[in-house]
Amino acid sequence: MIRRTLRLGSAIVIAVITAATAYAQSEHYAPGSYNIRDFALPDPGFYAGVYNYGYSTDTLKDASGNQITSVTVTGPGGRLSTTINVKVNVDLYALAPVFIWVPKKKVLGAKYGVLLAPSFANASLGGLLSRGEGAGLDVSTGQFNVGDTYVVPFWLDWAGKHYEMGINYGFYAPTGKYNISTVNVPVVGPVRVASPNNIGLGFWENQSQGISYLYPWADRRMAIQNALTWEFNQPKRGFDLTQGHYITWNWGISQYLPLKKDKSILAEVGPAGYGNFQISSDTGADSSNPSAHEKVYAAGIQAGVTIPKRMIVLNFHWFQEFSAVNRFQGRVLGLSLVMRL
């Protein structure tokens, strides 16, 4: 029964990795949205679920890892400049429904699956950061609207008694609300920026993942997870700008504990975390500081309840970010529910 449940945990999958949940300036993937067992494919069937994702921060870091409290804006020719305070107060909430289909037929000896994850959120942190750094304005959240959509058309998963390995390819379609606005900055005058009310990021992105699990016991009561995610960004609409590529390492240790003797209800608990790194420079005339790469680490804990017979999983997780460079540094809260239909 536990072995069957461990398969289900992965149904809470890559869903919330959408622009709506993205908290970095220039990427879609949000590593804090994952649960520990989400990177493996579940058993064959159709799954549906929903993720609730929250990100809060009052800290914005510069390229040296120091907190930004003000920006200096220079006028034409560099002759005039002004310093403006930047106050960061972000409380982002995102909702992402998830749909996964895993047919019974295998491909190359592996399970095959597809995933669709639209998203909805009250803000795009990428848009907020663009406004805060580029125009020296307060960074705050706005309305609730449609975000970008994540699609995984190719996902393979090979499994043995004590291991599991997988690869997948997905892309983000810029379906979210996205506009360009002009704000007036003292001394400088009009500045063209991505609208702070944007939910989408305004560009396509390709993503691939390599995944591994180690199961010390054959019933898979414990899972030791590692995953690497690569992001390859396309040009941003309305700007001469292509964001650099990113790589993210997710790690976690998940342990199932029976809440009833017959194991009909299981608790899940374990530590988890991630490291997120920009590995190439931004390009294009609108790139403000291409040599400044983003970086952040996070660590936290996950806890949940699983009902194996009905294939229902409820999970909560919390992450605290630290050592951020050239981006936000905050806290992540996630609550997800998924079931097989």
Short descriptors:
single chain, 341 residues, mainly beta, Lipocalin, twelve-stranded antiparallel barrel, disordered N terminus
In short:
The protein is mainly beta and 341 residues long. Helix content is 6%, strand content 50%.
Outline the structure in words:
- The chain has a single domain (2-340), classed as Lipocalin.
- Strand 17 (295-307) and strand 18 (312-325) form a beta hairpin.
- By secondary structure, it is mainly beta.
- It has helices spanning 2-9, 125-135, and strands at residues 45-57, 70-74, 81-85, 88-102, 111-117, 120-121, 139-140, 145-146, 149-159, 163-173, 180-185, 189-194, 205-214, 222-233, 246-258, 266-278, 295-307, 312-325, 331-340.
Residue ranges: pLDDT <50 for 5 or more in a row? 1-25, 127-141
Work out the helicity level: under 10%
CATH homology-level superfamily: Autotransporter beta-domain
What is the count of helical runs? Answer: 2
List the helices and strands and how they pair.
Layout: H1 2-9, E1 45-57, E2 70-74, E3 81-85, E4 88-102, E5 111-117, E6 120-121, H2 125-135, E7 139-140, E8 145-146, E9 149-159, E10 163-173, E11 180-185, E12 189-194, E13 205-214, E14 222-233, E15 246-258, E16 266-278, E17 295-307, E18 312-325, E19 331-340
Parallel strand pairs: 4-7
Antiparallel strand pairs: 1-4, 1-19, 2-3, 4-5, 4-6, 5-9, 6-8, 9-10, 10-13, 11-12, 13-14, 14-15, 15-16, 16-17, 17-18, 18-19
